Amino acid sequence: MRLSQLFIFFCRCLTFAALLLPSVPTHAAGVDLHAHLFMKSGLGPLFSGEFNDPLKAENWKSRFQSQINSEAVIRSGLDIIVVSLYAHPFLVWDRRNSIRRQLSQAADFVRQNPGWIIAKDPTSARKALSQKKQVLILSLEGASGILETDADIREFVEEGGIRIVTFFHLTDDSLGGAALLNGLRGIASPWALLKSMISGKTGTYGEYLNTGGITDTGLALFKKLLSRKVWIDLAHAPDLAWPVVLPILELSKQPLLVTHTSIREHLPMERTLSWPQVDFIAKSGGILGLMPSEEMLGKNSQSIQCLPDTSKNRPSPSSFIMQFLTLSSKLGDGHVMLGSDFNGGIYHLSPESVACSASFEEKGYWNLGQSAEVLRTIEKFSGYSVNSSKMAESFLNAWETAFNGSTSTQ
Prior knowledge:
Layout: H1 3-20, E1 31-35, H2 39-43, H3 70-76, E2 80-85, H4 95-112, E3 116-118, H5 122-130, E4 134-141, H6 150-159, E5 162-166, H7 190-199, H8 216-227, E6 231-233, H9 242-251, E7 257-261, H10 275-284, E8 287-290, H11 294-297, H12 319-331, E9 336-338, H13 371-382, H14 388-404
Helix pairs in contact: 5-14
């Protein structure tokens, strides 16, 4: 082969490689505080698609088809993913074995992908990021039925590496109530909703509030988890639990963590955050994950157009962008992150809500691999600089405080 032919062949290879680059983020995409990587094990027959299979989801309205696989995790560009482990109380025969399988799947992923680690403490996470690696942190959604004994805590927390626990979840249980959902979703906790309707217990916006808070059994477990350096996630916590647990979290020096939520003023239901709750998070130096979901964002989820920054007729932003900017102004730059809840059985963002990027034109925001681009949409519309590195730093600072803080809960 002549030298000229070799040169042409080399140039063609470079061109082909360049065409592939846009599919892989060239920058970090920050933090996702709540993503279910291994939901097949958590939902059993209701869910379609294993972690190592091709994605089953078709668009932003896909609910119980996989929106995450190993390739999507890598393509996401995320510095940190909080992996939420979940086992449905009715669809899974043995909930503990379900969590064991998911822990094993996480371990398999990092073995096969040396650019990722499972971090069990903030120090190892910082070290990994400094080495240009990416981090998984293990979380458990719903303590009831999983963490019932000291042996459970030893297995799943001390040995298994779970470092975050979403203490309350969809239904009332022996540990306490669950933040009520509105509409048809309210049947997730039907008796609690009925009691609230009968009692007429409502909040500022007319939303029904659970009449239950945290039980004595729940409070004992709550304190025990804090003593094991577990960071407590208050997503799904009913309003009545907040005044009970806040002094305990403050005493243990835990910044407040709410991994996946939105603003109650936009979607009046107990599952979302009131402004006083947002203020508590801000005061504690806490962290919040905003859900990129049409059905969780409420009003003003309207179409947007990406216009030049010089335009004087910029349309109203989508609710996702507006809430991201509002919460960032209250909590501080880098303290609002994604709380995608991918594989959590919810709609995500329609093409109209993320119109600033061609990659969303047909399917919207429908899989974890688009995480970098959805944050760029905020920048393209508003001019607000989404500092991904600052997200990771804010998260690690808060986790470090929670992890190293006093374990006193008395």
